[in-house]
Amino acid sequence: MVQDRQVRKLHMLKTREETLGAAASKSGMDEKTARKYVRSGKLPSQSKITHPFHPFSGQRFELVSNRWSWGQEWIYFYDDEGRLRSVPVDWTSLCAPDLFIILANGRAKFRPEDLFRLAELIDKISGSGQEQSSRRLLGRGS
């Protein structure tokens, strides 16, 4: 498990060392983990669940690992009872904020890409041959 002191050391070494891999090695972590902390600019103790409906929403955690699965990045952490848990990185403070949400400033309830995906799912589930009409309506094909 990466600790705050390791990440602080990484930030100090990344300007002195020739490569991020060298700085990571001297900090006691692999390059992939180092890249995540450099990109996020946060310490492990500063990470938290931000998804409003997750049972651990608002709780802080220390990142154990991260992996790509089901087309998105997942992070792994231990809960208070010592069980390994995972959530999509998008549900944490480790991801960059969604630009659409920032610019919409609360004026839009849904992101356009999510509505497109919803319309495609409805077409697929209904199977009524109306796929073309909703795609035309959404401007996503003929």
Structure description:
This protein is an alpha+beta fold and 142 residues long. The chain folds into two domains: 88 residues, no CATH class; 40 residues, no CATH class. The protein contains six helices and five strands. Helix 1 packs antiparallel against helix 2, helix 2 packs across helix 3 and helix 5 packs antiparallel against helix 6. The longest helix is centred in the C-terminal third of the chain and has 15 residues. The termini are far apart. 15% of the residues are buried.
Number of domains: 2
Q: Order of strands in the sheet with the most strands?
A: 3-4-5
What percent of the residues sit in helical stretches (DSSP H or I)? 40-55%
Mean pLDDT: 83
Number of helices: 6
Radius of gyration: 20 Å
Shape: elongated
N- to C-terminal separation? 51 Å
Order of helices and strands: HHHEEEEEHHH
What's the count of strands?
A: 5
The low-confidence runs, each spanning 5 or more residues with pLDDT under 50, are none
Describe the largest sheet: 3 strands, antiparallel
Given helix and strand content, the structural type is alpha+beta
